[in-house]
Write a structure and sequence with these properties.
8 helices; 337 residues; single chain; mainly alpha
Length: 337
């Protein structure tokens, strides 16, 4: 005789209800969402934001260490890869300088040709290196590190319901449109991206110098390719031994390497220059475009956005890496902290 009971008689309705409560209630008190917490997310948001002051946990943040870098001291990121890339950039520009001057312009087949092209190329190369130095050694807009302390939060005098942002990585109150850089180990205001070729982040304070660097590198690359093409034509029409102080095989190798370098950097920097100008005109950084973040800031005209980066009003100083942008009548960004 089978001891198995019919399916509908195994567990009476009351018993099944009690069993269900016995299993679910203890779990619900632990991990499962309960009333009032259904809309909360168990995982952190992409920007690591905390929308209530109670969750800031300032007691977990130690007071900021004493300022080791005096005001006005040069900003420099101690990253091995970035330092190597920056050094390679300078060496490549100096190589182009050597080939242009000592292979193509000397000895001078035309004094006027050599003087004009030599002065133009050297001026653009100097501005390119100066822009690179300013982009590398200018603070991109770093947020003070470790300021998410109880004392600092109280000093902000936040209004009821005001949203504040905290970065758990550098323990700082993060302004709007700021993002954390894992290489610089700081939150950077209006961060576009971290560029290893300048060993720095491209942010609010040094974007002008980075744009100038890409522009001048593209210009000297195009100028070097143009002169190399003319030099090849001249050497084919004349005797190779008369077109350079170096031997013909050495001249050909040096020119081919210069053409390869110039073409590669012309394409790369021209594209980068275009994307940076587009980013400035649309007032949307590369990270914001990548993350498709919603625009909550005040929309400005494209011309005003250009003034925010290069300075107000428009002048020849826009092309100089030695002048700091003067916003003048252009309203600076107001960040929420």
């Amino acid at each position: 005789m089978s001891l198995e009971r019919p399916h509908n008689q195994r567990f009476p309705l009351a018993s099944r209800a009690l069993l269900l409560l016995y299993v679910i209630v203890p779990l619900g008190l632990g991990r499962w969402p309960v009333a009032g917490r259904m809309k909360s997310s168990p995982v952190p948001r992409s920007r690591d934001i905390e929308r209530q002051a109670g969750y800031l946990q300032p007691e977990h943040c130690a007071p900021p260490p004493p300022r080791l870098r005096p005001p006005g001291e040069m900003w420099f990121v101690r990253d091995g890869c970035g330092v190597a890339c920056g050094l390679i950039t300078w060496l490549l520009v100096l190589y182009a300088e050597f080939v242009v001057v000592f292979v193509m312009l000397l000895p001078a087949r035309s004094v006027a040709y050599s003087l004009v092209n030599g002065a133009l190329f050297n001026t653009l190369a100097f501005l390119a290196l100066a822009s690179h130095f300013r982009a590398m050694c200018t603070d991109p807009g770093a947020v003070p590190k470790g300021n998410a302390t109880k004392e600092f939060i109280e000093s902000l005098q936040l209004k009821p319901g005001q949203v504040v942002y905290k970065c758990p990585k550098c323990c700082s109150i993060k302004p709007e449109r700021a993002h954390h850089c894992s290489v610089c180990k700081r939150c950077i205001r209006k961060m576009d991206h971290h560029c290893p070729w300048v060993n720095n982040c491209v942010g609010e304070n040094n974007q002008k110098y980075f744009v100038l660097f890409t522009m001048y590198i593209a210009l000297i690359s195009f100028h070097a390719l143009f002169m190399a093409a003319l030099h090849f034509v001249f050497c084919f029409e004349e005797d190779w031994s008369k077109c350079s102080t170096f031997s013909p095989p050495s001249t050909v190798i040096l020119l081919i390497l210069l053409c390869f370098e110039g073409l590669l950097f012309l394409i790369f920097t021209a594209v980068m220059f275009g994307t940076q100008v587009h980013s400035i005109c649309t007032d949307e950084t590369g990270i914001e475009q990548l993350k498709k973040e919603e625009k909550t800031w005040v929309k400005k005209s494209r011309w005003m956005n250009m003034k925010m980066v290069f300075g107000h009003p428009f002048s020849i100083a826009w092309l100089s890496p030695f002048t700091t942008p003067d916003h003048g009548k252009a309203d600076a960004y107001q960040y929420v902290v």
